[in-house]
Write a structure and sequence with these properties.
- By secondary structure, this protein is of the alpha/beta class.
- The chain contains nine helices and 13 strands.
- It has two domains: 85 residues, Winged helix-like DNA-binding domain superfamily/Winged helix DNA-binding domain (Arc Repressor Mutant, subunit A, Orthogonal Bundle), CATH 1.10.10.10; 212 residues, D-Maltodextrin-Binding Protein, domain 2.
- 41% of the residues lie in helices and 24% in strands.
- Strand 3, helix 5 and strand 4 form a beta-alpha-beta unit.
- The longest helix is centred in the N-terminal third of the chain and has 28 residues.
């Protein structure tokens, strides 16, 4: 006889408190349930159930076996569900958290193509500039940029971007160009407050040495686009990912402050809750983003 069927029959008898209700639950005859349980006991060489005319209860050995059997049956059910889910077409509500500037400038323009490709998925994209708790706040995934914090979340890189120090030409004309990293201490710096290390700029020197510049910002904001606007207005030097300033730089509104420094590359990641398998709707969206953004190199971001 099939081991899982024997195990299921025994566990269902324990759950239902008797053979009659277990048979009804499994959709088979009472005698079939009894045969499965008897075969299991014979194979194990142990009595698993105490049987009386009024009730059925597990023996001490049966109770211990029941705990393990129920786990095995649950795992088997999850395995079946996994295969079914992975073969099913992606569908349902996809709730995404993304920083406002990245969402407006880079996700919004491609969402239409995604929805056309997956008409059974509906998207709720929440734009905010704070670190959200995916599970407790009900998000399926989030887009995060830069070094990821340690967590139980799963992550997949969808693209790279470069991070550079930029300033408006008028700022350079008024305050001069820093020649060395230490010169930054004498300049007006613009900070992005949503980063845990907002007041610390991690910079690689031409020698390859990793440096940290700690200084209070002349202006601190929690929105990348607002920080770029302040930079364009000549208020100071900002340290931003290129996907934010690429257009402004192409128009001559900002320029790289210290072009001799090594290029700082940051990852752009899709993060999502842990689990034994990824929901089809989440997997479909991540695959879509990787395909779209892989056509661009870090210099384009």
């Amino acid at each position: 006889m099939d081991r899982l069927t024997e195990m299921e029959a025994f566990a269902t008898v324990v759950d239902q408190g008797g053979f009659t209700d277990a048979a009804r639950k499994m959709g088979i005859s009472k005698s079939a349930v009894s045969k499965h349980v008897s075969a299991l006991e014979a194979r194990l060489g142990a009595r698993l159930l105490n049987r009386t005319t009024r009730r059925v209860s597990p023996t001490e050995i049966g109770l211990a076996y029941y705990d393990r059997a129920r786990r095995v049956l649950n795992d088997a059910g999850e395995a079946d569900a996994l295969v079914t889910a992975m073969q099913s077409a992606p569908s349902g509500l996809l709730r995404i958290s993304v920083a406002t500037d990245f969402g407006v400038n880079h996700l919004s323009p491609v969402l239409g193509d995604f929805l056309k490709e997956y008409p059974d998925i509906t998207v709720n994209m929440v734009l905010n500039n704070r670190y959200v708790e995916l599970i407790s706040e009900g998000f399926d995934m989030a887009i995060r940029i830069g070094e990821l914090e340690d967590s139980t979340l799963r992550a997949r890189k969808i693209a790279d971007t470069t991070r550079k120090m930029i300033a408006a030409p008028r700022y350079i004309q008024q305050f001069g160009r820093p020649e060395r990293i230490d010169d930054l201490n004498e300049h007006k710096l613009l900070h992005y407050s949503n980063q845990s290390s907002a007041a610390v700029w991690k910079i690689t020197a031409p020698s390859g040495e990793k440096r940290q510049i700690r200084t209070a910002g002349w202006l601190t904001v929690n929105d990348g686009q607002s920080l770029l606007n302040a930079c364009v207005a000549g208020l100071g030097i900002a340290y931003l990912p290129s996907f934010l300033f690429a257009d402004a730089m192409s128009k001559g509104l900002v320029e790289e402050v210290m072009p001799g420094l090594p290029e700082e590359v940051q990852g752009i990641y899709a993060v999502y809750p842990p689990g034994r398998f990824t929901q089809p709707k989440v997997r479909a969206f991540i695959d879509f983003l990787v395909a779209v953004f892989s056509e661009k190199g870090p210099q384009d971001w």
